[in-house]
Amino acid sequence: MDSLFNGDLLKNITRRDLIEYLELSGWKNIESPKAAWIVYAGPNDYYGEPLEIVLSKRDNTDTANQYLASAIDLLSTLRQESPIITSQRVQNVNRDVLNLRNTDENINISIPLKLAARQVQKLQTLVRQASNSERDVLPYYRGNYYNSQADRMVNSFQFGHTQNRSFGLVVQSPVLPDPIPYVQTRFDKPEEVEPPLMPIERRITERVVRGLVAAKNAVRQQSITALVESYNSGFSSNMCSAIVDISDNKRATIEYSILWSPKIPPPNDIAEVHPILLNETDYAYLEYAANEMKVLKQPEDTFLVRGLVSLFSATDNPSKLDTGRSVIVNWKKPDIDRYVKIIVELNPEDYLSAVDAHKYWYPIEVTGEARMIGNRWRLLNPRNFRAFPGDIPYEIKQESF
Length: 401
What we know:
The protein has helices at 2-6, 15-24, 62-79, 83-91, 113-135, 148-156, 200-221, 225-229, 237-246, 280-294, 348-360, 394-400, and strands at 28-30, 37-44, 50-56, 97-102, 158-159, 168-172, 254-259, 276-278, 302-314, 325-333, 338-345, 364-373, 376-387.
């Protein structure tokens, strides 16, 4: 308790943030016997009784701060982590937070200005290259590759407060928007409804964490094969190089950790990732993988996708240029001879045509690069879109649904 008051942990935590954190974490608001208090019930204690957190409705008083500190103290005990980390979770309830900590013994409260500037610059590169991979998955991006969405992401991610007691950098995602739901107007097979599409703000962070995990696994397995081949969902060559550059030419030992926002549950494979410490050996593997990816032969992945639109989604009015629009097409992939669901992002005109095709249940076709990103097929660089009114081909009718 004293540590909470002696430091600045409570300074940036509001009651509103704490309440939102509690509700997103499964705590339930219960009736309070006194009008001046807000009470939340959480998991059961040793005796089977629900734990309670009490908050004052009066802000900026000693009593309110005492109850706020008690809440942070209880939450940190339940998570078996320091109050510093729990405070950071609550303060950034709507953001994912990537922490970097320089762990060298001679680094305590500061680092050379040149190294700090380098690390911040390469963190920008890491975000930019992760955004590139979410737009068009490649093992390597040449210097003339341009992605306007990457510019937006670099400007949206934020540089947060450094950690106490050791010099660290904090990268905060933008406020996470809600996942984008897919709309289905036919209900003959409701069990086939797809989970919502995660916003790119979350997908960038997932890609960074998966790449870090793959890098450590490469060292454990003494093989870079899996790391090189995981560029679909992890590091590209450019991201590997950015991580190496953050280390100041493989000299700095850096610990990475992630705090997921409870607003969106993280994927199971990276939901509980312990801090990852990268050292000189890890950087050597990353550097080798970066070079291998530069010459990695890309698969022949250009396909004509033809099939029925089963689901569609838009973040806003689909006629607006800056709205995210995508459809899911049931497509028989020829090289595997079975139907897959593939996500296709379309411009406003083609999206509205695809919605009409869905409405009247006739097929569309579009050309692009089919890639497995994470666990979902996506069609990148879609072009030559067409919709076909009239009879549905027999094989599509029979085999798609």
